[in-house]
Design brief:
- The complex is a heterodimer of chains A (247) and B (445).
- Chain A is an alpha+beta fold and 247 residues long.
- Chain A has helices spanning 2-7, 71-84, 89-92, 112-121, 184-195; strands spanning 30-36, 54-59, 93-99, 102-107, 129-137, 146-154, 159-167, 173-175, 198-200, 230-232, 235-237.
- Chain A folds into two domains: 2-59, no CATH class; 71-200, 2-Layer Sandwich (Beta Polymerase, domain 2), CATH 3.30.460.
- Chain A is built from five helices and eleven strands.
- The longest helix of chain A has 14 residues, at 71-84.
- Chain B has 445 residues and is of the alpha+beta class.
- In chain B, α5 (108-123) packs antiparallel against α6 (131-160), α6 (131-160) packs antiparallel against α13 and α6 packs antiparallel against α18 (426-436).
- The chains are: A alpha+beta (247), B alpha+beta (445).
């Protein structure tokens, strides 16, 4: 595994010597939570000797220039195009991350529509196709609990980039991209249904998968799976969410 | 709002707060329309589904009609939502394939491959996937493309009343399902492609059976041409129906045969090759009609191209491992056939139980706990028979996925239903939906 990490080592934040250890160490990257203990036993039953272990779980952090390949070109073009519109790139782009050969722009939510419109319309960028929105819930990432993730594909230039936007749980609002990419209509409804992110400006933001009167948003981390224990060959097998977790 | 006139027809009526509701259970459509017209209610909303046989599973179509013309069309989905993405967060990365294979159950191998490509990207082991594993993945995906297109053409034909095409399609698909059964043990829901490679190697006789199939299929494929391609009734029902041009496809995110029927040869196998697709020799068929007929022709031609790829796969297959060499990821045991069915190989059990304590611990840890995936996110996409199938996988460094999202092409393409159907006839809705080829398992997940 250390070989593989060496070959895509575009991320200087990565601690190569620690790649065989659970998780990654160091101060770089974005801390999404702190892990205590080893085997998910959080009610005092851990006799493994790892009960005092404290680990910080970090996602890959912001990358510095050069990003490599066509990534710099896209970043330059985007920054230039935003400047032309009188928008300071630093205000719109929170950070740029290059990890595992993929380019991610973290966008401030108030500028999302403008950035997406620029990415779609600028001839040098031309990301015509949005593959929809996915979301991730990080309950311990205070102030940025909800992340919406968009993948944009340029057929003209044969490129793929990712936009990431975050919103706090207390104010789960992100502007809708339906005006720029109509395909996001159902995708945003799905993300609203599962995460409770309110996409402002969506023409009809209603539930799409769950029944209309369903309480709660099932894909959030604080929403239980609701598994049921089953009996197998005389033994009681606990539900998947009650089993020991090693994460 | 006379219930008298309605009771005379095949449809019974009842009064609700939304107006008169007719329950249609067979009978003559004209009579229903007439009785509704007599009721002097100019706006009729027809609820098709979720159990209508022509809507490809539990899809609900809400059509507002004026005579025979559809003025507004909307989809109701979610009837097959099973929470697969949520469930994945409570299983190990390897167990995930068992779930994702059930999403779009007609394109199991594409779901599995897309998921595994995303996990392998997160692990950073893409370069270590063995040659043989990649070839078998391509082989199975192309067989799967054939079986998926066959169902699309077969059910699409049946909905037009062309039951012969239906019988032919399912006859040929049956041969492919037999191959699946030989290779994976199951006709559907295989969980055969795993992060790092494959669950096991091809069984003896598989290559011969695939060769035999290719030979038969080459003989059978022209039958669809003879039956349908030039058939004037078939053409009259399909041509200019379900029209969606390039601008519409881009805006609505439609990919796959729908996009290629506008003349744009966009196929991820060529644009962003995975599993060494760039080394295979095949063409991307397109049409310029933007309609259901063009999509039918594209699917037919794609089946021929898939046969070409399958033959190249068979020629390339060399003996070798089908799992990465990294013992921290590779499943420790190979399956073997014992007296009580398929299970862990006895040699492996003998080794871990009798000779090596460390191997036993390693096996136990990897099977119960699973491997850890470094934190981060990855997006992997494959060209499924329906379009771009994307997987967004996020890891928090644990042994379970933190989040997995599937961008299923059926889900996205089904949004185009309204644009394709509004202004057309009720009967054309069926043809347009069939040309989208939605599978509700993938739409609802």
């Amino acid at each position: 595994m250390s070989d593989a990490n060496g070959t895509n080592g575009a991320n200087p934040e990565k601690d190569l010597s620690g790649s065989n250890l659970p998780g990654q160490r160091g101060d770089g990257g974005e801390e999404i939570r702190v892990q205590r203990g080893m085997f998910g036993a959080n009610n005092g039953g851990d006799t493994s000797g790892y009960g005092g272990l404290v680990r910080s779980i970090r996602l890959p952090g912001a990358s510095g220039r050069p990003y490599g390949g066509w990534f710099d070109e896209v970043a330059d073009e985007l920054e230039g195009a935003l400047e032309e519109q009188g928008l300071l790139p630093d205000n719109a782009i929170d950070r740029t991350i290059v990890d595992r050969g993929e380019l991610t722009f973290h966008i401030e939510r108030e500028h999302l529509v403008r950035v997406a419109q620029t990415l779609r319309d600028d001839p040098a960028l031309r990301f015509e196709l949005c593959t929809g929105v996915s979301a991730v819930h990080y309950p311990h990432d205070k102030g940025r609990e909800l992340h919406a993730v968009y993948h944009l594909r340029s057929i003209t230039h044969n490129r793929l980039i990712r936009l990431e936007v975050s919103a706090p749980d207390s104010d789960p609002h992100i502007p809708s991209l339906v005006s720029v990419y109509p395909t996001n209509d159902w995708h945003e409804r799905e993300t609203y249904d599962f995460f409770g992110i309110v996409f402002d400006g969506h023409p009809a933001l209603t539930r799409i998968m769950m029944p209309d009167d369903w309480p709660g948003h099932p894909q959030r981390k604080d929403y239980p799976l609701g598994g049921i224990a089953v009996e197998y060959k005389g033994a009681q097998i606990p539900a998947p969410d009650q089993r020991r977790s090693y994460s | 709002m006379s219930t008298q006139s309605a009771s005379a027809s095949a449809a019974s009526a009842r009064e609700t707060t939304e107006g008169t509701v007719y329950t249609v259970t067979g009978g003559d459509w004209d009579e229903v329309v007439q009785s509704a017209a007599r009721a002097d209610d100019e706006r009729i909303v027809v609820n098709m589904g979720p159990q209508h046989p022509s809507t490809h599973g539990v899809l609900r179509l809400i059509l507002e009609i004026d005579g025979e013309t559809v003025t507004e069309a909307r989809c109701g989905i979610g009837y097959l939502h099973t929470g697969i993405e949520k469930n994945l967060e409570y299983r190990t990365w390897t167990q995930g394939t068992t779930f994702v294979t059930r999403m779009d159950y007609l394109t199991s191998f594409f779901n599995e491959t897309a998921y595994c490509l995303a996990v392998e990207k997160l692990l950073g082991v893409e370069d270590q996937i063995t040659e043989r594993a990649k070839i078998i993945r391509v082989l199975l995906m192309e067989l799967n493309r054939l079986s998926s297109h066959l169902v699309c053409i077969a059910t699409g034909g049946m909905e037009l009343g062309a039951t012969t095409i239906m019988i032919y399609g399912f006859r040929d698909r049956e041969m492919i399902l037999d191959i699946y059964e030989l290779i994976t043990g199951l006709r559907m829901n295989h969980a055969y492609i795993r992060p790092g490679g494959l669950a096991q190697d091809l069984p003896p006789g598989a290559v011969d059976q695939v060769r035999e199939f290719v030979k038969k299929m080459k003989k059978n494929l022209p039958e669809y041409d003879k039956l349908a391609t030039g058939n004037p009734i078939f053409k009259a029902r399909m041509q200019d129906v379900g029209y969606l041009d390039l601008a519409g496809c881009m805006a609505l995110g439609a990919t796959g045969p729908i996009l290629r029927s506008t003349g744009l040869p966009h196929d991820l196998r060529k644009a962003q090759p995975y599993c060494d697709y760039e080394t295979y020799d095949f063409d991307i068929p397109t049409a310029d009609t933007c309609d259901s007929y063009g999509r039918f022709l594209i699917r037919l031609e794609e089946m021929r191209q898939s046969l070409r790829i399958i033959e190249q796969c068979l020629d390339r297959l060399q003996p070798g491992p089908v799992m990465v060499a990294d013992k921290k990821i590779a499943w420790p045991a190979q399956l073997a056939l014992g007296p009580d069915g398929l299970g862990n190989s006895l040699d492996h059990i003998k080794k871990i139980m009798g000779t090596s304590m460390e191997a036993l611990i390693h096996h136990f840890k990897l099977v119960t706990e699973g491997f850890r995936v470094p934190p981060g996110q990855a997006y992997a996409a494959v060209e499924s028979p329906k379009g771009e199938l994307g997987v967004h996988a996020v890891s928090d460094g644990g042994t379970r996925p933190y989040r997995v999202h599937f961008r299923d092409p059926s889900f996205t393409n089904l949004q185009a239903m309204a644009a394709m159907c509004e202004g057309g006839q009720v009967a054309d809705v069926i043809v347009a939906v069939a040309s989208i080829d939605p599978v509700m398992g993938g739409v609802d997940r």
